[in-house]
Specification:
272 residues; alpha+beta; six-stranded mixed β-sheet; 7 helices; 9 strands; elongated
Length: 272
């Protein structure tokens, strides 16, 4: 016969929903270490209707594990600077020579920007169970239901932006080559196949966009709202955490048996 565990304490349970609509549970499948005051997000953004979150996590560019060369390449996805082609550099040097004459000197290489942050993007987790936050004070258990559960993983929008910049740079090269071909008297109609392929790509892209669901379109159209990240030990977080305690002392009465409670936890449907 098994011996039942000894009951060490019994606490009354109180429920509060004052913060429920603001309560998000963040899961980090790709991260194993918790944030600290120095490694926490440097910026955060929220789409309340779409329940989407973005966090900018700073990167240590002085770490021995950080590749400066790759950091310079990826930093192009964080700014609005265009990628300079050989034609662009040649035109800039030509203009400098014309403006400065014989006193022109090759400019020193500027210190390049580095990728100094990683943006985590969210995916909402379907509600398969209910989560609550529980806090104990003065031998009382206070529960606040959690509204949304999301998983945050590294996003790579900067790579997409770099790809767009390279496409724009290649377009400029093609435009210059077409112009030079026209000057040489080459028939410009020889490049018609490229134009057809671009139109086909645009048509296919429009078809894919039309397949988006309304919810996805609404999420894309909703503007990001900047929010401030506060560490759990900050005064701001401590002030908000006071709202996790219920002011109402109305005791919750249990209306289920132990067997019914276990069935609900396991997802087992009770037979009528």
């Amino acid at each position: 016969m098994e011996v039942e565990d000894e009951i060490l304490a019994e606490y009354p349970i109180y429920l509060t929903s004052e913060l429920t609509k603001y309560m998000y549970m963040f899961q980090y499948p790709m991260r194993s270490t918790p944030f600290t005051g120095k490694t926490g997000p440097s910026a955060a953004r929220l789409k309340p209707k779409a329940k989407m979150v973005e966090l900018d996590i700073p990167l240590d560019t002085r770490s021995q594990n950080y590749s400066t060369e790759r950091g310079e390449d990826f930093a192009m996805g964080l700014n609005d600077k265009t990628i300079k082609t050989a034609y662009d550099r040649r035109m800039e040097e030509h203009e400098e020579e014309l403006s400065m004459g014989h006193s022109y000197r090759q400019p020193k290489k500027k210190e390049e920007e580095l990728l100094d942050k990683m943006t985590f993007t969210s995916v909402e987790v379907p509600n398969q169970t209910k989560y609550v936050i529980g806090v104990i004070r003065d031998e009382e258990l206070h529960l606040t239901p959690i509204n949304t559960t999301i998983q945050l993983r590294p996003g790579f929008k900067y790579i997409d932006k770099i790809d767009e910049k390279w496409k724009a740079a290649n377009k400029r090269i093609q435009d210059v080559e077409k112009l030079e071909e026209k000057k040489k008297g080459v028939d410009p109609n020889t490049a018609q196949t490229l134009q057809v392929s671009v139109k086909n790509a645009e048509r296919e892209g429009n078809m894919r966009r039309n397949l988006y669901s309304m919810s996805v379109r609404n999420a894309e159209e909703e503007d990001w709202q900047p929010i401030v990240y506060y560490d759990e030990h900050s005064l701001q977080a401590e002030k908000v955490s006071e709202k996790l305690y219920s002011d109402s002392k109305e005791t919750l009465d249990c209306v289920t048996t132990n067997a019914e409670y276990l069935d609900q936890l396991s997802g087992h449907k009770l037979q009528a």
